[in-house]
Amino acid sequence: MRVSSRRWRGLLALTGVTAALLAPSTASAAGATGRQADPLERQVDAIHDSGAVGVQAEVTSPDGRDSARAGTAEPGTGRQMPHNGRMRIGSAAKTFTAAVVLQLVAEGSMSLDDKVERWLPGVVRGNGNDGRRITVRQLLQHTSGIPDILPEIASLNSAAGYRAERFRTYTPEELVALAMRKRRTFRPGQGWSYSNTNYTLAAMIIHRVTGRSWEDEVKARIISPLGLSGTSTPGTSPSVPGPHAHSYATFGAGAGAGIGIDVTELNTSMAVGSGSIISTAHDLNRFYAALLGGRLLAPAQLREMTTTVDAPELGVRYGLGLGEITLSCGGSYFGHPGELLGYHTWSGSTRDGTRTAGVYTTSDGGENTQAAIGRLVDEELCRARSQGVS
Asked: Who wins on pLDDT, 372 or 384?
């Protein structure tokens, strides 16, 4: 079964954000384990009860951090979800990519107003796509009109495609060339449409500006300085290194499909710049706290990143690699959910980075799973507001 183009706009994206905050909860307070849980444990149990195979969450604040887990690392084995297990973070990688670009802007190596053509001459051409008219800012903001290529990737579309092509390697140039076969979505700056191709191009520009790969720059500028020991850029390796739970995908089969098939092995070269990072809930919380706390970007560049526009496809506002999501208690937070074949993650931070909440699951779950994931982040960050955290 092919996944609809509508679903693909959400893959590696901010999927179902508004619905997640508004949907009613159907899980019991104690959860499947029967625990009389603290709030975080209760919410993790609710996600597990909704159909997720495995769940882990962590919340940080000036008072410390709390974590909880539920479910199993691999059905049929009895193995528990690992403490601080590693997973593919999907579109949360876009925040890393945007942060690298903004650091290069602060250093004077490039500008957000540079045309794509300046750095990648002749690459964005055809079917109305024209790099001479598209800026770097529009790439990061998804206002370029460049079409998304991921609907064409067989390994992400069906179980048969996954089995046949899960080890296939794509080059960024190959991905962009495939995208150029498609008609542009709109004139640059005249609309908003989520496209992973934008971030493949951003990764290529990082390479052109620095002379080093996107992977190397992410490591040197973010992973190493922050000491994110559970975070890596896998390149073409199909494995998840270190302690991790297996991931399972149904490929959009819907109710009655069960947990789907094991999709833990995957060469994620099709997601360079847009989703090819492995991390942990703990590391993601540290990353977003450092970013929003002003430790990765100068004030001018952080303002650029957090200046948002309407993203009508998603029902949120979107900056540069960062979503601004409404809190049910009033105000908003910044973050970037992500998905990549079975692994679903959602991390967010208060505007000053003093409180973070992150959660991930290892399967697509049931019809209420995404709502329960979004509710956990919302409730935990609303708890921060009730405690006087901005």
From this structure: 372
